[in-house]
Each structure stands twice: as C-alpha cells, then as structure tokens.
Amino acid sequence: MSIVENRKARHDYFIEETFEAGIELQGWEVKAIRAGRVNLKEAYVIVKDGEIFLLGMHVTPLASASTHVHPDPTRTRKLLLHRREIDRLVGQVERAGYTLVPLDLHFSRGRIKTTIGLAKGKKLHDKREAEKERDWQREKARLMREKR
C-alpha cells in the first residue's frame, strides 16, 4: 500500500533497478507519515562511509506532537539494507552517471519502507520522447474508445 510516490523521479531518470529499504524513523515521524504528511519531491539518496542516507524528505510534524520533542522535518534519515546490497549499490554509484533516488514510501507488513532506484539521468530529448510516447498512447486509447 503506497503512502507517497515520487513521480518526478521517473520523469527525470531512467530507473534501472529497484531496492526496498527500511528507514530509521522517530516516533513522531511514523505518526506523521501514517497521517500522510510527507513529501518526497526534493528527496535524494547519498552514500557516506559505507552507509546509505535519505536527505530532503520532508515530514510535517503533527500539531499533537510531544512538547519535549523538537521535530526537524528534513533531517537526514538512515536507510536500512543488507550489507551485500549496500556494497553493490556503492559500486554502481561510483561509476559515472548513476545515482540513487527514492521512488516511493509504502507499508510492508506494518512497517514503513521506501523503494529506492538505481538511476541514470535523462537528457532533455529523452524527456521529450517519453512525453510524445505518453501522448500517443493516450490518443490511441481515445481513438479506440470512439470506434466502439
């Protein structure tokens, strides 16, 4: 069950491979995410010291958050993956042109997980080509509906 999706990522990148990762969250963040108060639009993933971190994900705190907790909506959150997956991703990212992008947040057996994609950036002409293809598919579907 998807919570939020990063549609901009699929527009800006060719996604070659996806991985499901857990996220190290605080209690107030879990409550806010369950309430749907999260934004992945400006988020990105970095590799630092053999660990993978999610930066830029904005979680708006609920008004009922505890008084002794000082929430930071855009704090850096650690992603939880198996060591073998991390080593493989580090190797891929160090090659030219590859990056890691968060694609969505979803529930998996009651836990909040994120799908990250190993991606290569699209050029402007690739984006235009994808848009033309999408428009053609839409037009084709419309023509098929009219023929019936």
Describe the structure.
This protein is an alpha+beta fold and 148 residues long. It contains 4 helices and 9 strands; from the N terminus they run βαβαβββββαββα. It has a 7-stranded antiparallel sheet. Strands 3-6 form a two-stranded antiparallel sheet. Strand 4 (44-48) and strand 5 (51-55) form a beta hairpin. It starts with a strand and ends with a helix.
Portion in strands? 35-45%
CATH class: Mainly Beta
Structural class: alpha+beta
Q: How many helices in DSSP terms? A: 4
Sequence stretches where pLDDT stays below 50 over 5 or more residues: none
- How much helical structure, as a percent, in the residues? 25-40%
What overall form do the CA principal axes indicate?
Answer: globular
Kindly report the spatial arrangement of strands forming the biggest sheet.
1-8-9-2-7-5-4
Task: Based on the model shown, name its key terms.
two-stranded antiparallel sheet; 148 residues; globular; alpha+beta; Small Protein B, Chain: A; seven-stranded antiparallel beta sheet
Secondary structure: elements and pairs:
Layout: E1 2-5, H1 7-12, E2 13-23, H2 27-34, E3 38-39, E4 44-48, E5 51-55, E6 58-59, E7 77-80, H3 83-94, E8 98-108, E9 111-121, H4 124-147
Antiparallel strand pairs: 1-8, 2-7, 2-9, 3-6, 4-5, 5-7, 8-9
